[in-house]
Design brief:
With 408 residues, this protein is an alpha/beta fold. The chain contains 15 helices and 15 strands. A seven-stranded mixed β-sheet has the order 2-8-7-6-5-3-4, with helices on both faces. A four-stranded antiparallel β-sheet has the order 11-12-15-14, with helices on one face. A hairpin with a 4-residue loop joins strand 9 and strand 10. It is globular, with a radius of gyration of 22 Å. It starts with a helix and ends in a 5-residue tail after the last helix. 48% of the residues are buried. The structure holds 4'-deoxy-4'-aminopyridoxal-5'-phosphate. The site of 4'-deoxy-4'-aminopyridoxal-5'-phosphate has 13 residues, from helix 5.
């Protein structure tokens, strides 16, 4: 991407146009371009009615917008059918849906559930709940200090006893991409299903659920420039068909009598109550925006910025970056510690220099314990960040120890 092209894209984002802050917390949530905000506004201004209910034109317009958004998501994931795309509130809700509707019904006391120790709490606690309630055993895949999952570890933990494997495609701490092909092959060989947390990967790489053969995929709209409050669950149709509803009430039924209920067909069986149609429309606009730029361009820009940041951080002997050597293996995520400076102080000092980064346990406390550190700092880059912003970040990191009174 040329500098001019990148600045043109950056100009699409109202917050980036208005704010002086170098926003480097994209793994927590990204910024939204005008087209996403406009799409949501247009829905409310021109087609607002309760989708799937009103038998009048406006209601049908709203239903059509919502269905078109689902089709955009289907194409984005290359799912076979729209029935396999469930709209939720976020990745966390998608993962809980699978835990409650699949896990509690299909997993038993003889089974094992395998999760990586690096999982975000959202892809760990639901499985711990399933293990507790079904009597199944939870097994952790131990990652190396730089975040990789060795083949021997996968082969040792994924066995004939495994009923379900839940892993993130990209870790929110290391930014490393897990070998999903290998994990899915191995799990299927042993008769287990795979739940892939794509919260961090969906904004950065194409996902083809049919090529992967993955059983369930969860992601949030807000990390890929869509609105907050809309998320996606992909599930193989044959699995979703067999699962009972997660939530019940309006919209998810076909027929209800005093003592009987039949459920609506997929995907509506899993979308109880009034849906977030404007959110879905906004998410579809974000997907269109992202895919129009093109993955190759996005990736090249992200790698160039990450490389620049990594080199700058590595030139400071008191800074320790966690994760892979190569910029290509960070997905824009740079998690680090600074000798003698608490991550909360790092974040506060950077904030004073108008640089926004994340500090804390990143909703991955078992991983922090595994790494032997209570918390870390994390800068996360997206294609719309600039070299000037990364330089400002590096200058602020270079000043940290002096500001904390360590001298040079
Ligand atoms: N999984 C991963 C890897 C994440 O990074 C996050 C968000 N930090 C989540 C799940 C949960 O996403 P949400 O809060 O949007 O549900």
């Amino acid at each position: 991407m040329t500098q001019q092209e990148m600045m043109n894209y950056r100009a699409d984002f109202p917050l980036l146009r208005e704010s002086k802050v170098a926003y480097l917390d994209n793994a927590a949530t990204s910024q939204r371009p005008d087209c996403v905000l406009d799409a949501q506004r247009k829905f409310y201004e021109t087609h607002n009615a309760n989708p799937l209910r009103g038998l009048y034109q406006l209601g049908m317009d709203a239903t059509e917008d919502y269905a078109a958004a689902r089709e955009t998501v289907r194409r984005f994931l290359n799912a076979k059918s729209d029935s396999e795309i469930i709209f939720t509130r976020n990745a966390t809700e998608s993962l809980n849906l699978v835990a409650y509707s699949y896990g509690l019904h299909r997993i038993g006391p003889e089974d094992e559930i395998v999760v990586s120790i690096a999982e975000h709490h959202s892809n760990m606690l639901p499985w711990r709940m399933v293990a507790r309630q079904t009597g199944a055993t939870l097994r952790y895949l131990e990652c190396t200090p730089d975040g990789s999952l060795p083949m021997a570890e996968l082969e040792a933990k994924i066995t004939d006893k495994t009923a379900l494997v839940a892993v993130a495609q990209v870790s929110n701490v290391f930014g490393r991409t897990n070998p999903m092909d290998t994990i899915i092959d191995l799990a299927h060989k042993h008769g287990a299903v795979v739940v892939m947390d794509a919260a961090q990967s969906a904004p950065h790489m194409p996902i083809d659920v049919q090529a992967l053969g993955v059983d369930f995929v969860a992601f949030s709209g807000h990390k890929l420039m869509g609105p907050m409050g809309i998320g996606v669950l992909y599930g193989k149709e044959e699995l979703l068909e067999e699962m009972p509803p997660f939530l019940s009430g309006g919209e998810m039924i076909e027929y209800v009598t005093r003592d009987k209920v039949t459920y609506a067909p997929l995907p509506h069986k899993f979308e109880a109550g009034t849906v977030n149609a404007a959110g879905a429309v906004g998410l579809a606009a974000a997907i269109d925006y992202l895919t129009a730029i093109g993955w190759d361009k996005l990736h090249a820009q992200e790698v160039a910025l990450t490389d620049f940041a990594l080199q700058g951080l590595r030139a400071m002997p008191y800074v320790h970056v966690i994760g892979a050597e190569k910029a290509e293996e960070h997905c824009g995520i740079l998690t680090f510690t600074v000798d003698g400076v608490h991550p909360h102080d790092i974040s506060a000092i950077l904030d004073a220099a108008d640089v926004a980064i994340r500090a804390g346990h990143h909703c991955a406390q078992p991983l922090m314990q595994h790494l032997g550190t209570p918390s870390t700092a994390r800068a996360s880059l997206f294609f719309y960040n600039t070299e000037e912003e990364v330089q400002r970040f590096l200058d602020a990191v270079a000043s940290l120890r002096r500001q904390m009174g360590y001298g040079e």
